[in-house]
Amino acid sequence: MPGGVRCSRAASPVLCPGGWPHSLLELASRCNGFNPPPNQGPDPSLVYRPDVDPDVAKDKGSFRNYTSGPLLDRVLATYKLMHTRQTVDFVRKKHAQFGGFSYKKMTIMEAVDMLDGLVDESDPDVDFPNSFHAFQTAEGIRKAHPDKDWFHLVGLLHDLGKVLALAGEPQWAVVGDTFPVGCRPQASVVFCDSTFQDNPDLQDPLYSTELGMYQPHCGLENVLMSWGHDEYMYQMMKFNKFSLPPEAFYMIRFHSFYPWHTGGDYRQLCSARDLAMLPWVREFNKFDLYTKCPDLPDVDDLRPYYQGLIDKYCPGVLRW
Ligand SMILES: [Fe+2]
Description:
The chain is mainly α and about 325 residues long. It is about 45% helix and about 0% strand. It has 16 helices and 2 strands.
């Protein structure tokens, strides 16, 4: 949806018929505490989007019932925490903390299986393991792009960075839409009007302008994104020298950057390369959204095919 989506639109989802809570901070502490356990609550990136087309939102609403309070509260609370605590300083610390990839050694399939530990018991519609989403996304891509085996693998890999949650990281530093830190959040960032007021960076004269600490059209590769599973997985793939094409790295790195790829914001930071990559990110996104349908893949049947892709592009025991 080019041209940007305003926050006012974000603030009228089917998810919240009762209106917004008066104090999100109060809500955050009441709902989750300030450090919600990693397995608690829905992944906000799958529950709430600022860009959702009303018709799609309606379908989505019937698909996942978030018309009642607690789940939406938790999503809001997660974004409030994220938008308060994701700062330039925080993101740099996370890069330093995880950039050595000394958390764990495991294969891709072990990580896929490990993500099953992330099944959200409070989510009314997700009563199947998280890895099904990975296989469903991959299979959707495979059907539409049979000739691009590397793209199929992107579907399987794209959320594996969520192992961060199993390393004890809070949800607001793992899931949800991403945004650049070091500059003022733009209008299509979800809940942007109501969740950033306590972020210390916005009191900083350098970080609080539209360009912030960046040069015009510096390229997203030079932008510090909020920390989460996208950036972690991208760095992990680079560290372990995956032999996938640049498009694959790019799609995984920016798949949750909704304010950019769907909201149409942050164009002032984009280089020509970013604009060339945008159609890839959008193409990937078609398969990532709303794939949690009851039509569950037979994972055991699919494993050999994907193991073959893993052996081709990212074999063996990897460092996480
Ligand atoms: Fe994701």
